Amino acid sequence: MAAAPSPGPLTPAQLAAFHRDGYLLLPGALSPPLITSLLAETTRLLSTLDITTHPLTQFHAGDTNHVGDAYFLSSATNISFFLEPSAFSPTDPPVLLHPPARAVNKIGHYLHALSPPFASLLASGTVGNVVDVAALARQLSFRDPRCLQSMTILKQPGIGGAVPAHQDSTFLYTNPPSAVGLWYALEDATRENGCLSFLPGSHLWKGVEKRMVRKEGGGTEMGGGRGGAPGGGEEDGKYVMGEVEAGTLVLIHGNLLHKSERNTSEKGRIAYTFHVIEGEEEYDERNWLQPPEEGFTRVIRD
Fold first, then answer.
1. Does 14 fall in a domain?
2. Which SS3 state, helix, strand or coil, does residue 106 take?
3. Would 133 be classed as within a structural domain?
């Protein structure tokens, strides 16, 4: 007989839906005052960007070879800014066409340690944070959950690019795969401004066939993965649109295929996300993102 799941924030029906579909929408996970605080922190961080000293590292969704500079590869332990390609002119050299704060695609990847407002989401008892992450991790059967790759994602009005279908385990690979994403909507995410879409159940049949690794001599590339899963699904199947209100938490299984479209509206879409992996599984030196000296942040503390 299987052991009963640990108590946590999910009902039995919600837990079953997550295991079946590979994702789960949890409205009202953040209170309005906490959302306001996290948006204010995002604005504060943007104000610290000095574009004159920035290497102009861009984030190209679906393209892994651009992310090989030292600025990107050292971001696991820093608060770094990655720019939206559509914010630049097509000229050589490119010219930034938007104010810096309106040109940022992502801020990451160590917000959960270096930004107190975002770090508070890992702490039990944070006012306005309805979902206790440690209890959730226990409920999902993590033994030694570790937090990594936290970032604010800004799908800028009119220029926020599409993100093609992908699996988060490709970028945060453990053997066997264990990643779960926690994606918090800080603004409403709609069809018009590029909300997430999911291929339900794809985590059950889509194995991790490739992984983003560091190349010898610098840069990154897609290498072979391990950890296949039973076949039987279609990658071009019907995606389900995940329109959500601000304050919603979206859980995403690391093997689930999901994507988002370009923001064609004049309304931005800001989200905060981090991932949890099983600390007892193999996480090797080939992964692009490497842990700080003290290791990835423990979610359940002694």
1. no
2. strand
3. yes
Beta carbons within 8 Å of 216's beta carbon, 6+ residues apart: none
Residue 56 domain-assigned?
Answer: yes
284-295 b/e (C-beta count within 10 Å ≥ 16 → b): eeebbbbeeeee
Residue type, 86: S
Query: How many domains in the chain?
Result: 1
Contact (CB, 8 A) for 243 and 120: no
Taking residue 179's Cβ as centre, other Cβ atoms within 10 Å add up to 24
Cα radius of gyration rounded to whole Å, the chain? 18
Do 199 and 255 meet the contact criterion of CB atoms below 8 Å apart? no
262-284 pLDDT per residue, tens: 999 999 999 999 999 999 999 99
Q: Which of 158, 19, 190, 45 shows the shortest CA–CA distance to 107?
A: 45
Domain with 109 in it: 27-87+100-231+245-298
Whole-model pTM: value is 0.93
CATH number of the domain residue 55 falls in:
2.60.120.620
